[in-house]
Structure formats: structure tokens, C-alpha cells
Design goal:
- The structure is a single chain.
- With 441 residues, the chain is of the alpha/beta class.
- Helices cover 18% and strands 29% of the residues.
- The protein is built from eight helices and 29 strands.
- It has helices spanning 17-27, 71-74, 189-197, 236-246, 261-271, 291-296, 341-360, 410-415, and strands at residues 14-15, 34-37, 45-46, 50-51, 61-62, 66-69, 83-91, 106-110, 122-125, 153-157, 167-168, 179-181, 202-206, 210-216, 220-221, 232-233, 250-257, 277-281, 308-314, 316-317, 321-327, 332-337, 369-374, 380-381, 387-395, 398-401, 418-422, 428-429, 434-439.
- A seven-stranded mixed beta sheet has the order 1-19-21-22-18-14-17, with helices on both faces.
- Helix 1 (17-27) packs parallel to helix 7 (341-360) and helix 4 (236-246) runs parallel beside helix 7 (341-360).
- The protein starts with 13 loop residues before the first strand and ends with a strand.
């Protein structure tokens, strides 16, 4: 039994790109939320709003190394007529603000991030003072371990300061009760920093999906090994594993599987334990050695009702042969992509990437699209009735084709940062024509 959506009555054998994608997204469901430690949650999607339990900063603190003083005591201070204040001690970061009190005519040496002591109204940067040395303006403080006497004696202040100058007010970043992050937020480094800053050690998220990528073909050889007659290096599994990681997944690459249906079926079954989504490449066409169809067409039909993989032809170029369905006891989605490098990569961008992002629980599933003016030496041709995706280089509102239309041209793919979309009803696109572009970068 196949997971494919019912086809309209009288429909021809070709599926449209949109029909195939709709079938995939109707099957794929977001992963169940789990509680994760902050660093394990990087790249995951929040499933709940996060409210701030404590204000940031949680207390008034200094943004400079200097002296905490009263405004009136430094009013009118200058290098010619400095204010001379008694230093009553140090206030360091991590120290309680109630250990010192700054009274009239007094100052407390204060460090960046330290709480403002009671009685103090402003902070004078150390560069505006003599640092307690009596030798004119200084550029910094001496380390307390080297000069403990700096926390006592007198300090000359050479400039006045307004109230609350160089003071970070309590709650000036966020206040207790504010919403820190919305459900649906993808957790990157800044979001994880905020969660840590408000005291959250764990967070409830949808986990990053585990994607297993497997290429097929007896001709495929691992990079760094010697090529034999008729052999080529396996690039598809590397490209698609990297693409899955780029999409947000935890991706596992499986070495190329030979053209043997039983071996392939066994390998897939072994990999199901660590897969939320499986991707194969190669073996989906009509050749005598296209074993993916042979291995998967009936997988699960008897043991797992409702599962199985449906192989179909799409009205697109490249990427006409495709397979999709679910396999195994957990009905794990499987996308079977063509084996030609460009076909497999284009298919990934159009179908696998949205599936990964749907598993993550994201609303924005697709690459951004824009309109651009075609830069080309001659008209681009496209087969009638097929939606063509040509590799392109996009810049400043224009796009130029990169390489030819061959689905084996890996070097050209490496130079492309966009796909030029030619609709099914268009057979020729003249230079200067506005075209739709899928941005890959």
C-alpha cells in the first residue's frame, strides 16, 4: 500500500511538482516536543513562549571602571579645580551592593558590572580621575593585588557627571514578566545567550530531525579510494548530507550501497532506528539495475499496513523520476531521489528541505524566491509541459545561467547560488525577460 495522495480521476501519468510536494507535506508531521539542555537545543524550534523571571540587569550596575559618587560632589570639577573625595572602598562584580555606602564627599572605586552602592548617584570613569595617585589623569586602574591601597585614600576627579551616567539601570534590557522569546523561534547563539541570562537551563523544543542519507550504485567509490574501470566517486551522499545539515537536521551519511535489492532493503531496515526521515539517491528510473524501486516498492505492504513507497514521474526537469512513502513500524517518511547529481540536489531543495523543516515545526518551509532579469547570450529553451529548474548566479536583481542543462554537471552546480524557474507552459525565455528565481544561498 502506498502513502500517495489520491489522484484526480482521469489524471495522466505525470505528477506536477506541486502535487508531489503537497503529498509529502500532507504526510510529514512535526516531531514531538522534548525538554533539552540549552546547548543541545541549538537549531531547534521553541514550542512555548518564554517569559522573563528576573529583570536584566537584575540590579543597577556600572558600565565603566571608575568611581561611584554623588552628583553634587563632582559638580563643576575640572583639571584646574578637581573634586577631591575620600575613597571608602572597592565594589567588584559579584559583590553585594549593601557592603558600602557613599556619603557626602566620598567615592567608591567600582568595576564594570558591579552593583551601584547605596548613596551613589553616578559613575565617573577612571580616565576622568587621577586613580588615587595624585599625578594627573590616568588611563586605567592598577590591579588590586598589586596596589590594595587604591581602595582607600583620596581621588581627584577632573570632570563632572550627570545623574545615572555610566549606570546600567535595573531592567533596562528586559523586565521580569516580559516575553523573552516567542514559540516558533529557532534557537541560535543569541537566543541561547538570552535564555541563559534569564536563568533557563533547559527549554522545550521540537528536536532537530535525524536524516539518514544513502546513495546507491555499484559504480560508486568512496573519495580517497582508487577508481576502477567504470567507477566514479560518490558525491551525492556528501552533497545531500551537507544539505540536510544546512536545513537544520542531524544528518547521517551511509556509504554507497551496491545494486542489490536485498542488500539495500537490509541496510534501510538497519538505519530506521536512527531516522526521522530517510533519503536515498539513485536507482529510481527504469533501468534493469535501478534497485531502489525493486527494494522499496513493496516494503511494509504486508507487515505495516498503510506504509510503502510510491514511485512516480514528475513534470519537471531535472528530476523526473521520484519516489515517496513511509516505511517501517514508525511509518518513517522516505524520499527516493534520482541519481544524477544535479537532479538529486534540485530534488532535495524542492522536496526534502521542506520536509525537514516541517519535521522541525517551522512555518517557513521553503527557500526564498524573487523575480530577476535574465542575463544570457541567447534564449533559454525548456521542454513543453515540464517545469525546468536551471542553475543560475544571482546578483543585483539579475540572474545568469551557469553551465548547461545536463543533470550530471557537478562543477556548474558548485558555482550556482540560485535556480531559474521556467514554467511548464514556456518553451523559450529571451534575454531580458523577468523570471522567477529560487535563492539557494
Amino acid at each position: 500500500m502506498s502513502s500517495a495522495a489520491p489522484r484526480p480521476a482521469g489524471h495522466d501519468d505525470l505528477w506536477s511538482v506541486d502535487e508531489h510536494l503537497e503529498d509529502i507535506l500532507a504526510t510529514v508531521r512535526p516531531l514531538e516536543p522534548i525538554e533539552l539542555q540549552l546547548l543541545d537545543a541549538q537549531g531547534c524550534v521553541l514550542v512555548e513562549d518564554v517569559t522573563v523571571p528576573v529583570s536584566l540587569p537584575p540590579f543597577d550596575n556600572s558600565s565603566m571602571d571608575g568611581y561611584a559618587v554623588r552628583v553634587a560632589d563632582v559638580a563643576g570639577a575640572s583639571e584646574e579645580f578637581p573634586a577631591v573625595l575620600d575613597v571608602v572602598g572597592d565594589v567588584a562584580a559579584g559583590q553585594g551592593a549593601d557592603l558600602l555606602h557613599v556619603g557626602p564627599g566620598q567615592a567608591a572605586r567600582i568595576m564594570t558590572g558591579a552593583p551601584l552602592p547605596s548613596g551613589a548617584e553616578t559613575v565617573v570613569p577612571v580616565e576622568w580621575t587621577d586613580g588615587g595617585l595624585g599625578e594627573g589623569p590616568v588611563t586605567g586602574m592598577r590591579a588590586r593585588s598589586l596596589a590594595p591601597e587604591g581602595a582607600e585614600g583620596h581621588v581627584h576627579v577632573y570632570r563632572s557627571a550627570e545623574a545615572r551616567a555610566h549606570v546600567r539601570a535595573q531592567g533596562s534590557d528586559v523586565r521580569a514578566g516580559d516575553r523573552a522569546l516567542d514559540a516558533g523561534t529557532v534557537l541560535g547563539p543569541p537566543q541561547i545567550a538570552l535564555l541563559a541570562a534569564i536563568g533557563r537551563g533547559t527549554v522545550r523544543v521540537r528536536p532537530r530531525p535525524r536524516v539518514v542519507v544513502m546513495s546507491t550504485g555499484s559504480e560508486l567509490v568512496q573519495p580517497d579510494e582508487s577508481l576502477g574501470t567504470g567507477q566514479i566517486y560518490d558525491s551525492n551522499s556528501f552533497a545531500l548530507t551537507a544539505a540536510a545539515r544546512d536545513a537544520g537536521a542531524i544528518a547521517y551519511r551511509v556509504g554507497a550501497v551496491a545494486d542489490d535489492a536485498e542488500t539495500l532493503r537490509s541496510t534501510i531496515e538497519d538505519q530506521l532506528v536512527r531516522a526521522d526521515l530517510m533519503v536515498t539517491t539513485g536507482g529510481v528510473s527504469v533501468g534493469a539495475y535501478d534497485v531502489v524501486k525493486e527494494a522499496l516498492t513493496s516494503v511494509g505492504d504486508e507487515d505495516e499496513p498503510g506504509s510503502g513507497v510510491d514511485f512516480r514521474k514528475l513534470a519537471m526537469q531535472p528530476g523526473k523520476p521520484q519516489g515517496f512513502g513511509t516505511i517501517g513500524p514508525d511509518h518513517t517518511p522516505l524520499l527516493a531521489l534520482p541519481g544524477n547529481p544535479v537532479s538529486s540536489y534540485v530534488s532535495f531543495e524542492l522536496f526534502v528541505r521542506p520536509a525537514i523543516r516541517a519535521l522541525m515545526g517551522l512555518d517557513d518551509l521553503h527557500r526564498p524566491r524573487t523575480r530577476a532579469t535574465l542575463r544570457a547570450d541567447k534564449a533559454l529553451s525548456s521542454p513543453k509541459g515540464r517545469r525546468q529548474f536551471l542553475r543560475g548566479a544571482y546578483a543585483d536583481g539579475t540572474v545568469a545561467p551557469v553551465g548547461g542543462a545536463g543533470s550530471h554537471l557537478v562543477a556548474a552546480l558548485a558555482q550556482a547560488d540560485a535556480l531559474i524557474v521556467v514554467p511548464e507552459d514556456v518553451e523559450s525565455v529571451e534575454p531580458g525577460t523577468e523570471v522567477e528565481v529560487v535563492l539557494l544561498g
